[in-house]
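TL;DR need structure tokens for one chain.
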Amino acid sequence: MEYDPIKKGLGNIFNKTPFLRILFYKLLDLLLLRSWHVHKELRRWTKARKKSVGLYYKTHILDAGAGFGQYTYYLSNINSSWNILSIDVKQEQVGDCNNFFRSIGKTSVLFKTDDLTTFKTEGCFDLVLCVDVMEHILEDELVFRNYYASMKEGSMLLISTPSDQGGSDVQGDSEESFIEEHVRDGYNIEDISNKLKAAGFTEVDARYSYGTPGKISWRLSMKYPILMLGISRLFYIILPFYYLITYPLCYFLNYLDTAIVQSTGSGLIVRAWK
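>> reply
TL;DR here they are.
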């Protein structure tokens, strides 16, 4: 199933005013389990950075494959002085994001249309964030080398991506990805760790996300609503009532998934240091 048109439709609905766009970001933060895991790691990184150099030390961040810009928004709210470059291949989306961030006065944020297979700026970034992007890129090893070259010594790369343990909701060789835009169904922990080390990263730490609680939550909060919207746009009307019933359970499941060390899972959270 191609869900980009559905994502674009939802984005258009919430892109009418800055207030609606911020509301959209808040809803994504609540609904998307990946946001829970990424925010947890960003808080961890922020705490370490504050301890080592101070929270207001000049900081440059790359949001690689920024999408709607919700993680850029989250980071910009941690510290308004941080310089954040957010790149994406979709020119229209980049333009919308630049207009939004200008409208709310966030002058230290810039969105740029670029390709991660060619983007590289030597020794610039203290943090590179890459959320659900690498599963869309065939030339992943090239992108890892570009990340490494673009980072400062001691900086961190944070990746969220599907694993090979049911990533993209694929349970066997005969099944197709729920999300057709993926070029791979998921990474093996050893495989992505080896690729990052081959790119030059000295230390890699990878853990599973989307364990049993997360898989149930993802189906309830994302898969089933997207399938319903794919059938009929009338489900836009039903959706708020659906979430009113299901979200308390999803909230609890998301909490469990982030609080418990998962022995396996359909997602990966990967940290790598230069």
